[in-house]
Structures are given as structure tokens and as C-alpha cells.
Amino acid sequence: MFIFDGITCLPEERANITILSNLELVNDSVEEKTDEPPQKKSTGSLTTWYKRLGHVAKATVKKLSKKQMVKGMEIDKHDDKDETHQCSTCLKGKMIRQPIPKVSDIENSRIFHHIYSDICGPMQKTTQDGHGYFMTFIDSHSQYIKVKLLKTKDKAKEKLMALIEHAEVETGKWVNYFRSDGSSKYSSGRFAKYLKSKGIHYEFTNPDTPQENSVAECANRTLVHTTRMMLFESSLPRSFWGYAILYTAHILNRVINRGTSTEKTPYHLYTGFRPSVAHLRSFGCGAQVLLTGVKDKLAPHSV
Ligand SMILES: [Zn+2]
Predict the structure, then answer these.
(1) Rounded to the nearest whole angstrom, what is the distance from the C-alpha of residue 88 to the centroid of ligand 1?
(2) 56 phi, psi to nearest 5 deg
(3) What is the pTM of this model?
């Protein structure tokens, strides 16, 4: 039995990955490749797309399709009878998707003018690979989110340095300001020296006023809400929260966000290209894996 985590295919008992799309799960994050996904277009009802996109509002699904903000999405118009149906998963999960708050025009002026970051955890259950925390990295201009899973909090600085290096090379833009909560974890030592050497200003917020880091706080809430709902809907064990949260970040980057000023997805603003959603499937749905190199003509060619 295999399950589909929305992006990749996992054997049920162990999270080893068989790649089915243009994405690859590498230890603790989803790495995106620039190649087009093998599947150019996918058709589904409005409700199917609603679930694939993490229970985003159906009006948003229609807008993404109508205004061609994403590629590869085809809504089956013959299957819209359930458009007004109240979603039982959302009711049970008490899902309230809050938009990431708008930031000032200066912070929003260009990619990487401001980076927000936060650490969430420990989660009540660790993942199968022993991750108990997750860390967010959000660009204020595009609202593009990167998530890293952490085994311990002290790994955060190392991961952040790698993220900044990778993101700067990926976009060709340079980080101006880094904002996180006011605890001393970033304000001293190797990480502080790293920021200084790169000319990145560090803005730390008061620990008693999380609203000062509202972009990261709000993203954390949305990630956790959506993850809880996906686990609930798929009936998967809680130890799968790592896959669910990485998938949530992946889809949030592909839907429009009221925190951004344009009608472009975070992915589009971040990369300059419209994202494809043809490869997305509902988190936790069943999947079959094609076996390659099977010489026995009568043997099954998929499991
Ligand atoms: Zn729902």
C-alpha cells in the first residue's frame, strides 16, 4: 500500500520516496526543480481542486483557473453540483485561514527586502525521522514560504544560513533585513557574525509582542491548521505531520494571498514564472507506483 502525500509517493510503513513529479523530498524539505512536471494538465471537479489545494476557498480555486494564475488546472464543469456543499473536514477542523498580513510598502518593495523567520515546536509527536520542530523562512514581497523540519532548535542557525545562501543564489537578489523574535538565539555568536559579514540587518522583536513578527506567526498558524486538517482527512498517523506541513507550504506558494498586492501567486512573484499545479493530488490519497525493469511479462507492473 502506498499513499500520496500530495507531492510524492510514500510506502505506508516507511517514508521512503519514489519520485512522481518535479519535486523531491530531501530529508527535511521539498526541493523544487525547474523542469516542467511530466503531467502538463490535470482535470478534476471544483471540490477535487479545493482539496488538492489544502481547502482554500472555492472562489480562490475558480479565480486561479479563470485568470490563469496557475498552469495545468482544468476544472470539470459538469461536476460542480457540490459547490455549495459544506465541507465536513473544515467544520471539524474549525479551519479559519487567515491571510498573511500586509507589510509596509518599504518592506514590500522587492524580493528579500525583508525576511521573516520563526521556529514552531516541539510538536506533540515527532516525525518518523525524528523531527520535532519546523522553521519558516518567508519573503515579505512575494510571501513565498520555505519550511525546514528540525530535530532540535539548535540546528536552526545552520539551516538559516544555508537557506539564505541558497535563496540568494536561486533569485539573484540579496537579503536586506532579517526579522525574528527577540530571543537571544540569533543575536549572538556565529549567526550574528554571518549576518554582519553579509551586511544583513537583524531586527529582533519583543518576545511579548509576537504581532511584531506577525507575518511569520500568521504563516505558522496557517501551516499548523492546514496540517491538522490534512491528517484528519487522510486518517494518517500524527507522525506524518512533517510531510503534511511541507505539502502545505508547497500549495500556499501556489495560491493567491491577500498579503501580496498583485494578483500573482507567491511562486510567480518569487520566480517570475506561473506555477503548474498539474502534479498536485490530495494529501494522503491512495497511489500506485509503476515498477520499471520488470522482465516477467505476467508479473504486476505496478504496486
Ligand atoms: Zn474543507
Answers:
(1) 7
(2) -70, 160
(3) 0.81
